[in-house]
Design a protein that fits this description.
DUF427_sf, 7-stranded antiparallel β-sheet, 57% strand, 10 strands, mainly beta, DUF427, DUF427 domain-containing protein
């Protein structure tokens, strides 16, 4: 079954916090909506402090988005493994998320609209 994916500008000012630090803020984030799943906010890399991210060996492949690259967040309290991901060469209709990073919202990580 093919999933329906919609990508649109995420209106407003968005921020990522992890381990007590702000690691990114953007007025140019994208919102990816996939079927009935909660929206995922993708931040342009230039709006993320990439020094907080460390590429991992984890990988995943999505038929609609392509190969995902994963990152751990390096926080004062320690590494948060595989906390972020991006698609280097997303396929077809998902091409707009190229050059963007998304974050798993979980303990110690928040993605919120200000």
């Amino acid at each position: 079954m093919t999933k329906t994916i919609t990508i649109r500008p995420a209106t407003g000012h968005w921020v990522i916090r992890a381990g007590g630090a702000v690691i990114g803020e953007s007025l140019n984030a994208l919102e990816l909506i996939e079927d009935d799943s909660p929206p995922i906010i993708y931040f342009p890399r230039e709006d993320v402090e990439m020094a907080f991210l460390d590429k991992t060996d984890s990988a995943a492949d999505c038929p609609q988005r392509g190969a995902a690259t994963f990152y751990s967040i390096i926080a004062k309290s320690g590494a948060i493994p595989d906390a972020a991901w991006s698609y280097e060469a997303p396929a077809g209709d998902t091409a707009p998320i190229a050059g963007h990073v998304a974050f798993h919202v979980r303990d110690g990580i928040t993605v919120e609209q200000l």
